[in-house]
Amino acid sequence: MQEKNLTVVTEFILLGFQGSQYLRTFLFCLLLMVYYGTICGNLLIITLVSSIKNLHTPMYFFISQLSMSDILLKTDIVPNMLHILLTNRGTITFSGCIIQFYVFCVSGTFECFLLTVMSYDRYVAICNPLHYTSIMTSTYCMRMVVICWLLGFFTAFIDILMILMLKYCGPNIIDHFFCDLVPLIEMACSDTYFIKLQINLLSIPTVITPPIIIIMSYVKIISVILRISSSTGRQKAFSTCSSHLIVVSIFYWTLFTVYIVPTRGQTLTISKILSLLYTVFTPLINPIIYSLRNKDINKAVQGTFTKYTRCGNCP
């Protein structure tokens, strides 16, 4: 009788950021500008890498794939969040919530593996420079990126299957701005012990192992750089991987803070702010880091701007 009286949830109510109309208007304008800047910045990188021959290298190919992942993540989260800010809350169907969580998982998992591949690229470039072109061929790079995307789709599919094994019978209010893993598990009215255990086991190859590989790669890279005799050579070698190190640090700091570090005693507001950093602001930081700290991309931007300026002045 108790199971028959359970009401199956068909939609969720996302509360987003509760507050005054002025606060929500300010957040709406800020996040809209961040969203616009992120899309433009990442599209610029993708366009430059695909159209300028000097940027047809493994490193810039991986950067363009990172930009694609950032665009996917922001488009999955931000438009609905802007709607929630305007209406003070928003509804999303159960299937829409699952799709949003799936796309979020795909993007996050892909980025974990891609950053690992990028660290391997820097490892080969610095530790084995004579064989770099023969190892990091275009076919090999394409193959690794495809594997990263497939691993992202496959891992996210497993997460979705585990979420669908749970029963949702109410309440259907999610105090968050998107369908994330933690609130979906906490809202389930069935036992979640084995689901949490399986998700924790799944996080080992997808979240824990990649940063370990990255750290090992950079330990070797730094040891090789320190053996370079000239300070100019050391500075040039380190500059080739400094942008990647900054992106990795920001990505894993936010990821571990939100999902790995115990959240006991952490308020919902703090949790949402940390998630906001991970889903909204980090994809904006990536193109800024790779453009401001990269001479090749700066040169490509200036060349493209000069070219279109001259064409615009043509009679």
Strand content: under 5%
What is the SS-derived class?
mainly alpha
Across the major sheet, the strand order is: 2-1-3
Order of helices and strands: EHHEHHHEHHHHH
What can you tell me about this protein's structure?
This protein is mainly alpha-helical. It has 10 helices and 3 strands, in the order βααβαααβααααα. The protein has helices spanning 21-51, 58-87, 94-127, 132-135, 138-164, 181-187, 193-226, 231-260, 268-292, 295-313; strands spanning 11-14, 90-93, 173-174. A 3-stranded mixed sheet has the order 2-1-3. α5 runs antiparallel to α7 and α8 packs antiparallel against α9. The longest helix is centred in the middle third of the chain and has 34 residues, at 94-127. The protein is globular, with a radius of gyration of 22 Å. It starts with 10 loop residues before the first strand and ends with a helix.
Outline of this structure?
The chain is mainly α and 315 residues long. The protein has helices spanning 21-51, 58-87, 94-127, 132-135, 138-164, 181-187, 193-226, 231-260, 268-292, 295-313, and strands at 11-14, 90-93, 173-174.
Q: What's the structural blueprint in terms of helices and strands?
A:
Layout: E1 11-14, H1 21-51, H2 58-87, E2 90-93, H3 94-127, H4 132-135, H5 138-164, E3 173-174, H6 181-187, H7 193-226, H8 231-260, H9 268-292, H10 295-313
Parallel strand pairs: 1-3
Antiparallel strand pairs: 1-2
Helix pairs in contact: 1-2, 1-9, 2-3, 2-9, 3-5, 3-7, 3-8, 5-7, 7-8, 8-9
